[in-house]
Write a structure and sequence with these properties.
heterodimer; A: six-stranded antiparallel sheet; five-stranded parallel sheet; 33% helix; B: alpha+beta; Ubiquitin-like (UB roll); Fumarate Reductase Iron-sulfur Protein, Chain B, domain 2; 2 domains; 8 helices
Chain lengths: 505, 227
């Protein structure tokens, strides 16, 4: 049994670590900060699982594929949807305090789904799940099967002729280096740090993903970046107003001739305010008016028992009482559907290197359904660990393929500003070419990863899901994945036919 | 408006010193936002000298991850929910938490907290027993940020001693509630109950606004009184 190294201590990383430790494997979990600080604790609205009456994994699958605009691999998505009810029950048995109705887990309606399918713990689902999963991991830490290297970050990947044989990590304060042998599972989170404002954590800089990219791992569908429709700017960041607020009765409107115009209720009379996120964001962008989220129809009781975190966030960070006043909202960067290219077993194109959670592409296609990120993180972590266990670690003497590079502050700010303006919710050729030109002038690995995303966006000459091109407003009939790879300082791009061709409704 | 921030600085092995920064702000920014702008570029201190970026921890910037706990005008709290407008004198002293070893500047080593929960064996051996009557309290227990503010303010907590304070009691509560393991009660007595002097300063400073006193009382009822 060769050892396993997990990069990242969020939900996907812990899920992988627990799966491996349960099977007797020795796992080292490397993270700059402890699990309590991971972005997973910020997840709010819930996790999808077909547990409701009349619901089925098949319907969960169909909604996921459709919201992702037929880009996700159907076999992978079916596997996730099938596993979801069991995962929800397992989390409850680990002590997650999901909201309960009768003796069963309560379900809320979530975006892009006509059935109530989302288990939740108020609007702090991620935190509640993480507390349970952290305490489960603690059991294996005590037994010595999970070793934690908190305060450490990836500095380089060890590659032999056969693949990845381990990695080098560094103490983030002292710079002291450690070499770790074993299969590597990347669970690094999204690439927030490529942009200047987002709802997620500042710790998800994208730097480790950039190291893997430059070391040979390919990036898939990087251009699909979810702009969540209901975020609000505060100094230094954006805060999310959970989709759960609309599930509980919140309504979006803008002012038309001085009167509220409930634009989503007109646009989509069936799903209304719970249309998929890409649809609402696009609608808001095209309207070009200040939008508001009206939560005043929600009862005090629902605020207390189902949305207490959302209420607290509004009072503290927006200084606005949502029980009395609509919240001004606008779309903000929330999730990366694209990421490291993996196969259905979560192996990257580098043997011995696996990826799970938001850092890899797989389940969400061109647009992620709310409630599928926690699920994808847990399920992906399990599959990645199983694959690493089955494959064993590639042999040979690994050498550091690529050494981490520090990015000058000025370059980072230039990159973040260029990415934020070039890759907004609506894109066009001129803006994307400007972005690529700016990134060409910047050195180092993180801008190279940024360039891979920009080039993927430039090459996707269609509008699909979260990728909306004003110069190519329609979906193409051919469904293709964007794959970008590093070749020194260059980005190689190819469009590959998606595995799901033919599933199109 | 101009605010004056006095920031405690310290290098590994070096002596602590203070550096003053003047910042223009409407008062709506949090201490985190200011630290972020000071530390993400070369900033000038009050003397007009370029300052080394301030080292500190932050993550979510919205009170959910507990990374940015520090002492602000002497009180342990999260920098991301300490807004400048709360300080009418417009002078703010920012120091690291005092009970943990300083790594650099405002970053401290809180690994002892995580180690302590492991030593106390806080996990479930079997399936969680869920009672709807205890649901809210268990939910609150699981909201603990592990930020360390409760330990920083606790008159009984000293690092490297057996007593683990409110961070242990709050997290032990739900395990006591959800399992029947007697060993947790023993650990709870040894590592919390015997030493807690009931000052309840932890209850007042908890940045997650957890009902710390209530959770301790509930944990005592199970672990000590067998209820």
């Amino acid at each position: 049994m060769s050892p396993i190294v997990v990069l990242g201590a969020g939900l996907a990383g812990l899920s992988a670590a627990i799966e491996a430790a349960e099977n007797g494997y020795e796992v080292t979990v490397v993270s700059p900060k402890p699990s309590e600080r991971a972005q997973s604790v910020m997840a709010e609205g819930g996790m999808n699982a077909a547990l409701g009456e009349g619901d089925s994994p098949k319907r969960h699958f169909e909604d996921t594929i459709k919201a992702g605009r037929f880009l996700a691999d159907p076999e992978a998505v079916m596997g996730m949807a099938n596993a979801a009810p069991g995962i929800a029950r397992r989390l409850r048995s680990l002590g997650t305090m999901f909201n309960i109705r009768g003796d069963e887990m309560d379900l809320r309606a979530f975006g892009g789904q006509k059935t109530r399918r989302t288990v939740f713990a108020q609007s702090s689902t991620g935190k509640q799940i993480m507390s349970a999963v952290i305490q489960e991991a603690r059991k294996y830490e005590f037994k010595g099967l999970i070793r934690r290297l908190s305060r450490h970050a990836l500095s380089g990947l060890l590659l032999s002729g056969n693949g990845c044989t381990g990695c080098e990590v560094q103490d983030v304060y002292t710079g002291e280096s450690l070499s770790l042998a074993g299969s590597v599972i990347a669970a690094l989170g999204g690439m927030n740090g490529l942009f200047n404002r987002y709802t997620g954590s500042q710790d998800n800089t994208g730097a480790a993903t950039a190291i893997l990219f430059q070391s040979g791992a390919s990036l898939a569908n990087g251009e699909f970046i979810q702009y969540h429709p209901t975020t609000a700017a505060i100094p230094g960041k954006r805060i999310l107003i959970s989709e759960a607020a609309r599930s509980e009765g919140g309504r979006l409107f803008c002012l038309k001739n001085g009167k509220p115009f409930y634009f989503m209720e007109e646009k989509d009379p069936e799903l209304k305010n719970l249309a998929p996120r890409d649809v609402i964001t696009r609608e808001m962008a095209f309207l070009g008016e200040q939008a508001y989220l009206d939560l005043t129809p929600i009862s005090n009781d629902a605020f207390r028992t189902r949305l207490s975190g959302t209420l607290e966030d509004c009072l503290t960070y927006l200084r606005l009482d949502p029980r009395k006043k609509p919240i001004p909202v606008e779309p903000g960067i929330h999730y990366f559907m694209g990421g490291l290219l993996v196969d259905i077993r979560h192996q990257t194109n580098v043997p011995g290197l696996y990826a799970a959670g938001e850092c890899c592409y797989q389940y969400h296609g061109a647009n992620r359904l709310g409630g599928n990120s926690l699920l994808g993180a847990i399920y992906g972590g399990i599959i990645a660990a199983r694959s690493a266990m089955a494959d064993g670690c590639p042999t040979g003497r690994g050498k550091v393929a690529f050494v981490q590079e520090t990015q000058p502050t000025q370059d980072r700010l230039a990159m973040q500003n260029a990415m934020s303006s070039g890759l907004g919710p609506i894109r066009d050729k001129a803006g994307l070419e400007r972005l690529v030109n700016t990134l060409e002038r910047l050195d180092k690995s993180v801008p190279l990863l940024a360039k891979a995303i920009a080039i993927s966006a430039l090459n996707r000459k269609e509008s699909r899901g979260a990728h909306c091109r004003s110069d190519f407003p329609n979906e193409n009939s051919e469904i293709k994945n964007s794959v970008a790879s590093a070749n020194g300082r260059e980005v190689l791009f190819s469009a590959r036919e998606a595995a799901n061709y033919g599933v199109h409704a | 408006m101009e605010y004056t921030l006095d920031i405690a600085r310290q290098s590994p092995g070096g002596k602590p010193w203070r550096q003053t920064f003047l910042v223009e702000d409407s008062g709506e920014s949090s201490v985190s936002t200011i630290l972020d702008s000071i530390s993400s570029q070369v900033s000038l201190d009050a003397e007009g000298e370029p300052a080394e970026p301030v080292v500190w921890e932050c993550g979510c910037l919205q009170g959910k991850c507990g990374a940015c706990a520090m002492r602000i005008n002497g009180v342990p709290r999260l920098a991301c929910s300490a807004f400048l407008r709360e300080f009418p004198k417009r002078r703010i002293l920012v120091e690291p938490l005092g009970k943990f070893p300083v790594i650099k500047d405002l970053a401290v080593d809180r690994s002892g907290m995580f180690e302590s929960l492991k030593q106390a064996k806080l996990w479930l051996e079997g399936e969680a027993f869920n009672s709807k009557f205890r649901h809210d309290a268990c939910y609150q227990s699981a909201m603990c940020l592990m930020c360390g503010c409760c330990l920083d303010v606790c008159p009984n907590f000293m690092p490297d001693e057996e007593f683990f304070g409110a961070a242990l009691a709050v997290n032990a509560y739900r395990i006591l509630e959800q399992s029947e393991a007697k060993s947790i009660a023993l650990e709870y007595k040894k590592r919390y109950w015997h030493t807690c002097g009931k000052s309840l300063s932890c209850d007042k400073v908890c940045p997650a606004k957890l009902p710390v006193e209530e959770l301790m009382a509930r944990a005592n009822a199970i672990a000590i009184w067998g209820k």
